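User: Earlier you gave me the apo prediction for this protein. Now I'd like the version with magnesium ion bound, so I can compare the two side by side. Same sequence as before, with the ligand SMILES added.
Assistant: Got it. Here's the input I'm using:
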Amino acid sequence: MTQSVVVQVGQCGNQIGCRFWDLALREHAAVNKKGIYDEALSSFFRNVDTRNGGDGADIHKGKIFSLKARALLIDMEEGVVNEILQGPLRDVFDSKQLITDVSGSGNNWAVGHKLYGYQYREHIVEKLRRTAEHCDCLQCFFVIHSMGGGTGSGLGTFVLNVLEDEFPDVYRFVTSVYPSGEDDVVTSPYNSVLAMKELNEHADCVLPIENEVRESINILVNFSCCVRYRGSVSSLSVLMKNVILKLIFKKNQSGLGS
Ligand SMILES: Nc1nc2c(ncn2[C@@H]2O[C@H](COP(=O)(O)OP(=O)(O)OP(=O)(O)O)[C@@H](O)[C@H]2O)c(=O)[nH]1
Ligand SMILES: [Mg+2]
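And here is the structure of the complex with magnesium ion:
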């Protein structure tokens, strides 16, 4: 069985990513009532024996002990990642899977790509390698990011470059959230154009998501939008999950995944 690693970058990437993990866990729990660590789970999660504390050994079969997402969480602000670490998904991530800074990229592609990118390159490579070492057969990286924010667009596409350099044989799929027309951040369109060039050159497959269209879909399906992004993030993660699973399934069928 093959494995995939999710790299979530920036506020948007981390918020959507977390809803994806939540959905994956809930859907799996609904069909796997006995709590067995199976192949489906192993695609996205490690099963770690944490009984003796610390970073225990991976368990490849049998009962679920402690599930750890095959993920890397990157944000140049701490807020969103800290929230995740205090929320219901805190046990799914460990501190070795996080890269944060304090001040963010200020909605500036160049700060994310040129400044933080070069500053954190070694750090990113080391954490990616560590995550990849836990996989028997790493098939895909899924990058989730926004095109409008400085960290998502700049550092997100820098990570794509790193993936291409360090793991040239592993597919790079990207979920990119485009800013809506109502986005009042003046740099968003510029960030998007700069990021688009990088996607064009370094991604194998891009799943573009337009925030405005997504908002209309939300109204149509009557999602509750009491909390900002709550409904949107969940509809988006359902969409992302369905596309990802279909792509994986098709690739496995055609033998590309082996
Ligand atoms: N659909 C959706 N879009 C989001 C979410 N969070 C932010 N966005 C969109 O992302 C863009 C802003 O990017 P962010 O991800 O907040 O920025 P960032 O990557 O953290 O970069 P900096 O804050 O500049 O360091 C805007 O177009 C927002 O509409 C989210 O949870 N869901
Ligand atoms: Mg931010």
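For your comparison, keep in mind: Strands lie at 3-9, 45-48, 66-69, 71-75, 98-100, 138-146, 171-178, 205-210.
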